[in-house]
Recover the amino acids of this structure.
């Protein structure tokens, strides 16, 4: 199921897996991204290969190393489940099951997955529970100075495609260029939202970076130079050890406990 790789307690990422694990424990080629606030995303997947929330599910359902399930068989499985026929009648007025309705239902669910109740959100709204420590406040200031060009508030991404200086791995994933076939897009990947980032490790499109501290250190000292590197990262980010610590502390304020414990988003208990 979608929930196999998108685990609620891990911000709907796959905890501890560099690359996604699919049917028969087959390995995918990219890290499972956390999910939240998808109604505002302008494209989906690390390479932006799909640009509509309702069209997104067909790719993992039919992908041979994810669910490996022909869509016709998926529809038939839902048709054969008595409880789902009842659900479809309640939602659509009759119990007809087809791929369009399945995609609409999934899109409605994903669109409802709104994360907006973290400590950061409460701070921005001046609500109870939003009192920041001095380190977190320093981190917010530094974040806005050094990170917000790509990770734009409040969704914590501008949803553009950028080469963030990660050295290509053995898979040599071309990123956005896999879709556009444009050499200028080589090694560019969708800027991920940082919502719930403290609980979605490991990081980057290939899961190569294990901790938040390592993520910030990458931008400070680990930038790999290549022709498509984002100009904003040409010389890395110049910060002290203490400033790195403050940025990490701020990033932890983006964890939304209400969201990751919301029973409406939990897998059904059989």
């Amino acid at each position: 199921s979608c929930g196999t790789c998108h685990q609620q307690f891990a911000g709907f990422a796959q905890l501890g897996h560099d690359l996604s694990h699919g049917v028969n424990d087959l390995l995918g080629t990219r890290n499972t991204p956390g999910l939240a606030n998808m109604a505002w995303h302008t494209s989906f997947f690390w390479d932006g290969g799909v640009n509509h929330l309702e069209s997104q599910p067909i790719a993992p359902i039919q992908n041979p190393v994810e669910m490996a399930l022909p869509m016709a068989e998926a529809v038939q499985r839902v048709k054969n489940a008595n409880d789902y026929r009842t659900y479809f009648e309640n939602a659509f007025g009759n119990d007809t099951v087809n791929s369009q309705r399945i995609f609409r239902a999934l899109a409605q669910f994903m669109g409802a997955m709104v994360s907006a109740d973290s400590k950061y959100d409460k701070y921005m709204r001046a609500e109870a529970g939003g009192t920041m420590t001095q380190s977190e406040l320093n981190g917010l200031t530094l974040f806005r100075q050094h990170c917000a060009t790509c990770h734009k508030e409040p969704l914590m991404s501008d949803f553009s495609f950028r080469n963030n200086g990660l050295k290509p791995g053995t898979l040599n994933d071309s990123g956005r260029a896999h879709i556009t076939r444009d050499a200028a897009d080589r090694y560019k990947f969708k800027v991920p939202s940082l919502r719930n980032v403290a609980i979605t490790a490991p990081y980057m499109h290939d899961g190569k970076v294990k901790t938040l501290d390592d993520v910030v250190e990458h931008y400070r000292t680990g930038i790999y130079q290549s022709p498509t590197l984002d100009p904003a990262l040409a010389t890395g980010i110049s910060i002290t050890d203490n400033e790195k610590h403050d940025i990490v502390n701020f990033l932890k304020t983006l964890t939304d406990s209400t969201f990751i414990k919301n029973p409406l988003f939990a897998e059904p208990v059989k």
User: Anything to note?
Assistant: The chain has a mean pLDDT of 96. The beta strands are 161-162, 189-190.
